[in-house]
Amino acid sequence: MPIKFPFVKKRKNEVSSHHPVGLNHKQIPKHVAIIMDGNGRWAKNRGMPRIAGHKEGMEVVKKIVRFASDLGVEVLTLYAFSTENWKRPRNEVEFLMKLPVDFLNTYLPELIEKNVRVQTIGDFDVLPPHTKKAVQEAIERTKDNDGLILNFALNYGSRFEMVNAVKQIAAKVERGELDTEEIDEALFSSELYTCDLVEPDLLIRTSGEQRLSNFLLWQLAYAEFWFTEVYWPDFTENHFEKALYDYQNRKRRYGGV
Questions:
Q1: Domain residue limits, the chain
Q2: Which of 42, 46, 55, 88 could be disulfide-bonded to 231 (CB atoms 3.0-4.6 Å)?
Q3: What is the pTM of this model?
Q4: Interval 127-137: pLDDT, tens
């Protein structure tokens, strides 16, 4: 029986009818990464179970994916489940593992229609079978799409990713396939989960927290960061627009003058 949350208030459609003055559609960031934080606190503030916040957050994912696709963002990476999230209460973890199933079962036709391609990064093998099945089906059915890449970080941890990259490089050296003098930043990047993706231009984190939480530590080296106090279930297309507007009004120097 599906869990119902009768106390979740349905918000009005908050899609902006206009973009902020000065938003340049020729300078939309190619890759936006989002730490979708605050679901549990959003629910707690309303006297609801934490999983109610995750359920509401899933609806926000749908809106932001649509909006990012329409704006011309090439890659949207969403921090859906970290390697540390296994420490949460069992019922919450089980619910989080069902979310991709519910999300993709209801939203996959629209993703296909909007030419969105689904990808994942993280240690995929240890996910529950029902989660893997839903994600693998979405990846397979959208593999030929060439629009927005919707990249879910599932069971993802950046330190694990980098240690794994070091192990793979070390193995190649040991087998005589690689000389240590050939190891550089490009080679290291090629061993990461994100090897086929452009590095993020912009990181958005909701809920007021201002830390990376083991997310894309290598890839975010020169990304712009944008933080908001808003909890993820309250995050709207207008907030996303504001983040892009602020991004466009910063000067990215990449260590230069």
A1: 31-157+199-248
A2: 42
A3: 0.89
A4: 999 999 999 99
